[in-house]
Amino acid sequence: MTDRVVRVVLADDQPLVRAGLRVLMADSSELDVVGEAGTGADAVRLARDVRPDVVVMDIRMPGMDGIEATRLITAETDATRVLVLTTFDDDDYVYGALRAGASGFLVKDMALDDILAAIQVVASGDGLIAPSVTRRLIEEFAARPEPASQARRTVEGITDRECEVLTLVGRGLSNAEIAAELFITVATVKAHVARLFTKLGSRDRVQLVIIAYELGLVAPPRH
Asked: How far apart are alpha carbons 73 and 92 in whole angstroms?
């Protein structure tokens, strides 16, 4: 984590949601709201104009939705990361948002302090997915065909240990939990994760989770 102030844009069509987050961030010396947007198109324009560290993005907004806005923002720069914050029970776009380049996916019923902590995690270059969203992501992959041969060939480019780390990342384990599971140091886990980023062309941990599912390294639950 860095000591710098994280510059945040809030993108949500509900003014009360934006106001609640803004008020809470006002008490933090580590977060600074540099803009607000009520539509996806406005979020894209703001991201271009002010270059925030993180855009907290709703999905369902009038006009351009949060998925398309996320895709445009992440395609233009790696400097701005997107943390999707939405109403999970009414949202069918988890996979699309993560595929569009979101570095995190949270639900609005989480504690506000947890959401603020998540913003800092995403700003530091890591990614995270709410546990309930992870379950939905697994269900999404459960309905998909077996991994394609191209995906299987991708596994051949990583070592056995990196494959183990990727599997545990896919299961949602933290670096400390992976270190305990594999009896290695946290620093070694971080090194493996960094190499996975490079070898698999991933920008953050969330994309590693997606790849782990696509490769079949994490088995969906059987009902």
From this structure: 21
